[in-house]
Amino acid sequence: MAFSTPAPRAGEWSALLPTRFDAAARDRIEGRVQAIGRDLLEKSLAAQPTVLSPDYWAEQAGEWVLADDDLKVRLFRLVDCMPMLDDPAAVDRHLREYLDDESLEKLPAMLRTALKAARSGILAPFAARAVRAAMLAQAKRFIAGTTPAEAGKAALRERRRHRGFTLDLLGEAVTSDAEADAYAAAYARLLAELPPEAARWPADPLVDDGPAGPLPRVNVSLKLSALDPRFDCIDPAGTTARVLARLRPLWRLARDRGAQVHVDMESHATKDLTLAIFKTIAMEEEFRDWPHCGIVVQCYLREAPHDLGHLATWAQQRGAPIWVRLVKGAYWDYETVHARAAGWPVPVWQEKWQTDACYEAATTFVMEHAAVLRPALGSHNLRSLAHGMAVAEALGLDRRAVEMQMLYGMGDAEKEAVTAAGWRMRVYMPYGELVPGMAYLVRRLLENSSNDSFLRAGFVKHVAAEQLLAAPAPPARPTAPADPAAETASAGGGFMNEPLADFAVAANREAFAAAVARARAVGAAPPLIPVVIGGERTEPAEWFDRHDPSDHARVVARVGAATAADARRAVETARAALPAWQAAGVARRAAVLRAAAAIMRTRRFDLAALQVFEVGKPWREADADVAEAIDFCAYYAREAERLFAPRRVDVPGEENATTHLPRGVAVVIAPWNFPLAILCGMTAAALVTGNPVVMKPAEQSSLTGLRLFEILREAGVPPGALALLPGRGEEVGPALVSHPDTALVAFTGSRAVGLAINRLAAEASAGPDSRVIKRVIAELGGKNAIVVDDDADLDEAVVGVVGGAFGFQGQKCSACSRVIVLDHVHDAFVARLAEAVKSLGVGPADDPGTRVGPLVDEEARDRVRSFLEVGKRTGRVVAAVDVGPLAERGWFVGPHVFADVDPAGPLGQEEIFGPVLAVFRARDFEHAIELANGTAYALTAGVYSRSPARLRLATERLAAGNIYLNRGITGALVNRQPFGGYRMSGIGSKAGGPEYLLQFTVPRTVTENTMRRGFAPPATDEP
Ligand SMILES: Cc1cc2nc3c(=O)[nH]c(=O)nc-3n(C[C@H](O)[C@H](O)[C@H](O)COP(=O)(O)OP(=O)(O)OC[C@H]3O[C@@H](n4cnc5c(N)ncnc54)[C@H](O)[C@@H]3O)c2cc1C
Whole-model pTM above 0.90? Predict the structure, then answer.
């Protein structure tokens, strides 16, 4: 992969991007960079804001904030939620929460006194209004207007300063087709209305003249993620088709009206897809000769040189030039944090000089290919721009073929200096509403307050010119962390989660698609799932077929129906294997688990593809299930070694050692919804602690169960220590649970079955031939709620609720089935939620673009349908997705949302296990918590709020084993989020947590009196 490319040393970047300049030419260019740079810097410094200017004070305020990291975070968060706060009381409350007394002390005296005065007395509401207005005014420094008319006027003001513009409508990553349509329509209006007006503006040769005639006066920049709510790298074909359907009319309009369209670049995950869509449309016959289109390349990406090379080759084939805007990149912090959290290679350079050097190499490359890649340098760094100007000079490029670009509200003095030097300057001007614009604003604040920022170094810190203009080179002391992976591992106490597949990587998509094809190919001869006891396979008398939930005509497996007699034999065989498996010792058992994890890694996508067909799991969810199974093996191996190390407390004359023993035969009864992970987690925990296991996979996922069985055996579990008992739960379950030799039952599934197992285990323990009080570990259901506060980021809340409620069709015990929304934002939230739900892609699970697949079987479908009838009778239908002909093919039920539901009714209380969501209106936050806690369950819960005090309150009061703040409520990771609930959600300690294995063991303490006739050896361990 390109991003594994190590950074070249200073001066060797031409190895990544070849140049025709030799060392001598590069030295000459460097001389010119210094001369041009000094000139630009002097002119910029001369035009800097003075103490009388508001901009000066804005920059100073930034410096106060920067002095303290905690204050910076608090203020950014306050700014972020400000547009949502439309009444003074809410502003006042947030001010108090974010700027507590301790934070206030960090502010300059004048500001501190003013804020303290504003907090007290009857002036508080007015002060709150004034603070909000001041903060929003700050935000507006970077935003050119709210309406197209305002933006048009601002654009005209730029022209009067001899600068061009590119207009950008604020907003990104839409949540529904309605929002994507609105975004496209706004651009269409702009492209229809502004060019005729622009044609009447007086000409300005510096701005208008291009190398081959006049340039379009109207230039727009847009984000492709705003054109499709399902924009996802996992499904390039589907995303491309949907984006192009909205993009093509805009390109046509731009072409007809003589405007230019530039495609922005967003996160690394969408970069390849964005490039591919751009190339596709630019190659279409009607646009192939159109030169007024462009794309961004972010030079902080390790892949930038590779992408530029491909762009140049492609543009040559196309024939007509495109514009390439070179930027460093606006998402550096996000990319770094996100990749580290996911355990992926960090895609951005980790040292600032590397990004700068890459930018310069890219500049040289683009200028050397200016015939097809027209250079637009988007930077506020005068060294970077001076370098571009010097290279253009050295190549003898027509200045009109090159442009410099900067952001609205940043580097105004520099813009003047660049224009005065005779180069075209284009200003990137975002406009639109502040709420959707907050992400943009926070990026600007981050950028301006970064220690690595040129603007800050040059114009606030007043760093010396030699340093500012120095060629990019490594600093004396490295600034990047030594090993990001080691940092992540140490945060997890030495354990690292198995990274999920990064579907932005084409090789991963292709490998997954190939595994899906292989799994599909076995359709003609479905595998048989036998009973295996003591290593012997037996063919049961009865078999039943398992069908693909997406296409029930297709048989996925033929499942053997084990009998009660098989169950008894399995427990007895396991009992006989106990002594040897116990004696094998923890080191060997842990090694077996690690070997199983290693095998699963090699079969990763095949195991996932199996689930696609066996239980209807969409790609990403299926991959996550396998990763979790690997985590369970690796984590429990480690934990068992920790747990089984004897704990010694010796005193003179007495030695004490506490150790752990296996409980005995463990019966594992697993559900189908995490067919590999949960079965594997319970089985691995039991095995590694020395218990032989009788494994009973769910009827619906027996094939996955067989594959796990085979892997564990291959990894070294002896034949007697693991039995596979496929079949119907009601047939074998009671025989397994009630057998006198069964010491432990680990169950995950429904509340009804869990309670029945608990009762049966208790009764059997009291029976005459009982030899043990059976232990039951049961993880049952949930009726999980997400609370949406009145200051929540509604974009994030909609995405989180939709993901939680409809991911894997709502068939997760952690799924969100209730959303409780504060009255103030209830209607706005529900309207957006409804549109988002209507835009979900329902389809067969093997289609990578599917967000919502089928239900697991006919019974599940019928049960969910019956709840839909209840919803229609007792609530208001907010969204009801019709699955059309899919209903004939598989067990599909479209996502449904009901509002005005009775919290005490079935939709408010019963676990549905399907794509059905109930919405409740809460009077205030306390009421919301009360509603959230108003069921018998306590599994997961979530809150979207930007109030620190309310987040604290929710943490204290929400009844749930797993509470998630400002994120989705599913997808718990082993070790990071040990998983499990209480009340009717289960008994036992959390899976994937440090106490889980204890439940599978019996602690035993041995005490030895070492005193002999008054003589005792020295104690080895003092208490
Ligand atoms: C016209 C225009 C259009 C833009 N369009 C886009 C776009 O589509 N997509 C996009 O992502 N950005 C875009 N940007 C934003 C741009 O990425 C940032 O403004 C730019 O990165 C700031 O760089 P600079 O050269 O102005 O300043 P400098 O101060 O020289 O560089 C700051 C940049 O260096 C990089 N950096 C910071 N710290 C490190 C580190 N430790 N290691 C490695 N690199 C580091 C980051 O990219 C940071 O933004 C655009 C900017 C302009 C002017």
Answer: yes
